[in-house]
Amino acid sequence: MDKIKRNERIGAMARILTAAPNHIFTLGRFCGMFEAAKSTVSEDVELLRKVFAQFDLGQIETVTGAAGGVRFVPRLSQASALAYVQELCGVLSDPGRVLPGNFLYIQDLLSQPDTLEVLGAIMAGPYFAAAPDFVLTVETKGIPFALMVARALGVQLVIARRDHKAFEGSVVTINYISGSGGEMKTMSLAKRAVRPGQKALIVDDFTKDGGTVRGMVELMQEFDVTTVGVGVMVERRREGAPRIYEDIRSLFIVSDAMDARQGAVVHPAPWLEVQE
Amino acid sequence: MDKIKRNERIGAMARILTAAPNHIFTLGRFCGMFEAAKSTVSEDVELLRKVFAQFDLGQIETVTGAAGGVRFVPRLSQASALAYVQELCGVLSDPGRVLPGNFLYIQDLLSQPDTLEVLGAIMAGPYFAAAPDFVLTVETKGIPFALMVARALGVQLVIARRDHKAFEGSVVTINYISGSGGEMKTMSLAKRAVRPGQKALIVDDFTKDGGTVRGMVELMQEFDVTTVGVGVMVERRREGAPRIYEDIRSLFIVSDAMDARQGAVVHPAPWLEVQE
After folding, report:
1. Contact flag A52-B15 (C-beta cutoff 8 Å)
2. Yes or no, beta carbons of A52 and B112 under 8 Å apart
3. If you ran DSSP here, which 8-state letter would residue A14 be given?
4. Is the pTM of this model over 0.80?
5. Of B68, B104, B155, B264, which one is least surrounded by beta carbons within 10 A?
6. Which residues pair with A177 in a beta bridge?
7. What DSSP string describes A202-216?
8. Residue B115: is the preceding peptide bond cis (ω within 30°)?
9. Cβ pair B51:A12 closer than 8 A
10. Cβ within 8 Å of residue B133, ≥6 positions away
C-alpha cells in the first residue's frame, strides 16, 4: 500500500467521524488504518478541528482519559442555528399551510431527511452535556425527527406505542390525560426496551399543552428512568393558557390564531436567540 | 481570511458532501467558499474520490452537464454490504429474540441510527439508477429504516397512515387484504403528499406474504405514481407458500420455523451475494 497522504487521511477521517456523531474513535484506530504515528494523526485531528470550526461544520473534540480519542459533535453555532430555524419559519408561515379546522400542515417538513438532520442537531445541542442514554418518542409523526435527534446524540431511539403488539414481548402500559379535552389515552413500551437508571431525552414533533409529553415523562418514571429534557419541534401556544407540562424546549412557536389568508405566525423559540 | 490549504478544503468538502447524500453541489460553490480556482477544486474532488474508494467510504461522483457538479453516493462495496448484513444475522439468531407466538424481536435494530444508516445505504444501493422521487412507507415500525433509505437517496420520505388525521388535509384511502388471514385493512395518504407522474421506492421493515406491500403498490397506482421497487429489511419466508406480492428485495431472510432454544435461522438475501 502506498503511504497515505495527509489530505487523504483528513478526507477519510472527516467521513468516518461525521458518519457516527458523538461516538469516540481511538487515535489508534486511525493509526492502524493509515499506518501512521499517533503524533501524525493528532496533527490531522487538530487540522480538522480548525477547519470545521472555521466553516461552522460542527465540532471535532479530543477526549482524554482511558476511554479517550476523538469524536464529532454536530453542534452548530448559535447564529447558524437561529438562521436555519428562521428560514423555515418563513416556509411555515405560508397561507397554503392552514388546513380546515385551524391545523398547520407540517408533514412535509417532518419527512425531509436533510432538513431533519439539521433540526435534529439543533435540538440535540443543549443535551450533549446531559448525555442521555436514549431518545424516547411516541408513534407516529415524531419518529423521523426523534431519530435524527438520536443520531446527533449517538444514541438509540425508543418508540412508545399507542397500542401494544405481540412482537414486542411484555410491555408496561400507562394511562394519561390528553390535554385537548381531558380524554384518557394509553401508551405502551416494551419492558426490554430500556433499563432502570438510564437517562432519557423525550422528543416529539408537536405539542399544544404538553399532555402527551407528560404521558412520556410518567412512562419513564414507571421504568425508573430519569428524564433529562423534553424537546419538541413545533409548539402551538395559546396566550395565557396553562400547560400540563411546562419544561419543554421547542424549535418553532406557532401562535394559536391562524388565518387562512395570512398564514400562521411562526417564530423561533426564545432559547435560540439567547446569547451563549 | 488566510488561504485555505488543500487538506483543509478536503476535510470540509468531505463533511459537506457526505452530509447530503446524492445531492449535486456545483464546483462553483466550493470555489466561492474556499476562494480557489475550479481546477484546484477539481483536483480536490479527484483526491477525495480516490481515498473514499480506497477505504470503501462511498463514492464521490462527478456529474457533467448544465446541472453538473459533484455528489456523494453512499454505496458500499458488495463485500462490505454482505459482511455487514452477515454480522447482524448473527445478532438476529440469538435465541433470546424468539418471543411467545413465534415472533422475532427486531425493535432494537429498527431504532439504532448508526446501524440504520448503513442498512439504509445498502437497501438504497440498487435504486440510485432508478432515481425515485420519494420513499413510501406505512406507519409505524418501518419509519426509521425508510427514513434512512430516503436519506441515502437524497429524497423525501412519505408516510401512509392506517387511519387519516385532520392535520393532513384531504386524503386518498384504499382498502387492501392483509395476508395473515384475509383481513381487510385501510391505508390513507394525504393528497398533497405526492404528485402524479412521480416515481416511488416502497420500503418497509418487515414482510411475511407481501400483503401490506401490495397495499402500498395499489395506493401508488391511485396517485398515478410508478413504483420503481420494493425494499424490506426483514422477510419471513414460509417454504412453498405463495406471496401476495413477489417482487420484493429484502436484506434479511428469516425462516418460518423458530425455536426458542436455538433461535431463528437468519440469512442475508441472495441478491447481496450475487457477483456484480
Report:
1. yes
2. no
3. H
4. yes
5. B68
6. A184
7. EEEEEESSSHHHHHH
8. no
9. yes
10. B155, B156, B194, B198, B199, B200
d(CA A169, CA A205): 27
Within 10 Å of residue A106's Cβ, how many Cβ atoms? 23
* ipTM for the predicted complex: 0.93
Residues of chain A positioned with their CB less than 8 A from the CB of B51: 4, 8, 11-12
| Burial zone of B148 (CB within 10 Å; 0-12 exposed, 13-18 middle, 19+ buried) | buried
CA distances from A123 to A98, A107, A234 (A): 25, 18, 11
Residue among B33, B57, B141 whose CB faces A12 most closely: B57
pLDDT in tens, chain A (276 residues): 568 999 999 999 999 999 999 999 999 999 999 999 999 999 999 999 999 999 999 999 999 988 889 999 999 999 999 999 999 999 999 998 888 878 888 888 888 999 999 999 999 999 999 999 999 999 888 999 999 999 999 999 999 998 766 667 789 999 998 766 778 889 999 998 999 999 999 999 999 888 899 999 999 999 999 999 999 999 998 777 777 788 899 999 998 877 778 888 999 999 999 865
C-alpha cell at A165: 403488539
CA dihedral for B2, B6, B12, B16, sign (positive or negative): positive
